[in-house]
Design brief:
By secondary structure, this protein is α/β, with parallel strands linked by helices. It has helices at about 10-30, 45-50, 105-115, and strands spanning about 5-10, 35-40, 60-65, 80-85, 95-100, 120-130, 140-145, 150-155, 170. Bound molecules: 1-O-pyrophosphono-5-O-phosphono-alpha-D-ribofuranose, hypoxanthine and magnesium ion. It is found in: Cytoplasm.
């Protein structure tokens, strides 16, 4: 698995430090409140698990499983709900937790849905932001790291369902996705 990686972009240690930093900010933000933290499966799972341990206020957790990439490296443009929330969002303060914002289509879909469902507030925290990929106008409130215009894997992010369990964020060797070796 590690052998398939061309370059590590963000180390395990840097991710850990960032989770602490963002966790501290969110602790202040939600002090005295009871937000609903929504993990966007599957990719956000490791980030959510690590980040929430640094948010020192009461919160509720729920998960939404949405998919639009499948096995491809480009968004299909169609966001499909695989699993919806179990919790009512009306009147709640929501914190959407994502692994990456690329085209922005996934989050645009979710933010519109939660507004329609009458959430009181909707905030977005994403570990990674790839602004060069954007086609929907969407911005996160908190961003861990900006990444270049490359397909990244690890720490929740997959290529054809593999590499989610890498502890860092990296770029694959071109031969893995059938590209030219440079
Ligand atoms: O900004 P976008 O272009 O919409 O891309 C971001 C979304 O794409 C990935 O999900 P994916 O559809 O691959 O599902 P997964 O998390 O189960 O891998 C990623 O985990 C984000 O949720
Ligand atoms: O760069 C990426 N890697 C993995 N999954 C993704 N989903 C959107 N962008 C990416
Ligand atoms: Mg994926």
């Amino acid at each position: 698995m590690h052998n398939d990686i061309k370059e590590i972009l963000i180390s395990k240690e840097a991710i850990e430090a960032k989770c602490k930093e963002i966790g501290r900010q969110l602790t202040k933000e939600y002090d005295g409140k009871f937000p609903l933290a929504i993990g966007v499966l599957k990719g956000a799972m490791p980030f959510m698990a690590d980040l929430l341990r640094y948010i020192e206020t009461n919160l509720e957790m729920d998960f939404m499983d949405v998919t639009s990439y499948g096995d491809a490296m480009q968004s299909s443009g169609e966001v499909k709900i695989v699993k919806d929330l179990n919790t009512k969002v009306e009147g709640r303060d929501l914190l959407i937790i994502e692994d990456i914002i690329d085209s922005g289509l996934t989050l645009k879909y979710l933010v519109d849905l939660f507004k329609y469902r009458k959430a009181n507030s909707v905030k977005i925290v994403t570990l990674l932001d790839k602004p060069s990929g954007r086609s929907a106008a969407i911005k996160a409130d908190l961003i861990g790291f900006e990444v270049p215009n490359e397909f990244v894997v690890g720490y929740g992010l997959d290529y054809q369902e593999k590499y989610r369990n890498l502890p860092y964020i990296g770029v694959l060797k071109p031969k893995i996705y059938g590209g030219e070796e440079i």
